[in-house]
Request: fold
Amino acid sequence: MTNEKQVSRFYPICYYVGLIVLVLGVLMIIPAVTAAFCREAQIVSIFLLSSGIAMAVGCIFIQIGFQYRQVKINFGEGTIIASLSWLIGMLLCALPLYLSGSYGSYLDSCFDVMSGLTTTGVFLIRDLDHVSNGINMWRHLLTFLGGQGMVVLALTFLSRNYANVYMMYVGEGKDEKLSPNAVTTSRSIWRISMLYLVIGTIVMSALIIHAGLPAGEGILHGMWIFMSAWSTGGFAPMSQNMLYYHDLGVEVGSMIFFLIGSFNFALHYAVMRGHRSEIRKNIETVTFTITLSVLTIICITGLMQNNVYPNFMAMFRKGFYLLASGHTTTGFMSVYAKQFFYEWGDIALFAITTAMLFGGSACSTAGGFKALRIGIVFKAVKAEISRMLVPDSRIRTARIHHIRDMILSDSMVKSAALIILLYILTFAIGMLAGMYAGYPAMMAAFESASVTGNVGLSIGITAPSMPAFLKITYLVIMWLGRLEFMSVFTLIAYAFRRLKRA
Reply:
């Protein structure tokens, strides 16, 4: 009886993973159309072949579990579906990248796909400046898809089992409802994102064309830069990243969109419904504003000490942009990678490394600890100090405001502290791996913070020439950080359990 139950639980997992893989296969048609429009015949055939393979794999998984599609899944199975979908999705989405010839190995193409889906933004692609438009469209589409949640997208439109969708919605690292059920919540997330996509593409295209790019190229660049900014992804169509444009307007425009993109979708939803006071009352926006301000001061102080730039405005422009890019986990760079290590100094690097770990908001496109968790832990520490200083009769129940007023419970604090601890441990592992590969401690710490927080800023370690073990380490860290550990841990435990019973 137990074995029958175990087998039956396996089939609905296959069914939902198949749906997600099928959607990824269908989405490959978008870069194929882009390549066709740009007369890139070879790239068109690569994407059509890869799309066919992905859809075939998806259909096989669906067929395996079709009979069990109505079986109710539990939270653990929802997290397994989310983490397994990302893993299988990575392997299939890497096919067109590898077949394009722009990567030295299949591992490198898998690395870039995971970097895109997790909205990290570090890359191993060779000769990015001459990559086809079809490949660039796929890179940025992966980032946009990963920011909103590919599980969310697939199941929003293909499944009517609301309870099951919610389990997978939570498994993908999003645990807040904008409306009564997960399907309408997911649709709201995509409506918000598509609205911004239209506005953002128009604004960024205009700014980039004004900066000097031809209209056709400017529109594509505008769309791609917006996709990366909104998704706090960090991918850019040129190897110089934001330096390529050499334009203050492009920097300001991208910064506005990545700051907005790092906010909680629930906050966007509340503001759109007329609750604008939520911006100043919400614990996330308050915490983020404080940490961004403090770390900016530290960063600018470090730059002043090192006399990196000729005047304060240049210093503030570079310092604040990079600090905000790191704090929102976007990863857009307006300086060269080696400048961090050789010119910025330890104080500025410490500020940016800390910002990358802190990250943006929960239930957003951003990574890192999340402002909500930092605010909760700070409130808990403050409440504990108050308990020690005032008589019992005067102790008040600690509260926070996040969309609504909430009592600060022990379980809330423990959950926030646990995830922060796991991020710190993962960061330490990544740093040690970098040092083992022969890089200095500061460089290893910076790069580890970037991949752990799904940021994308690089100090020069991430490159096609770095050791294979470090590529795999960073790839796994990006996956863990984006799904916030528990989904991946559940998948590993499930795999071991099945092997034990086999």
About this structure: The CA atoms of residues 41 and 113 lie 22 Å apart. DSSP finds 21 helices and two strands in the chain. The mean pLDDT is 89.
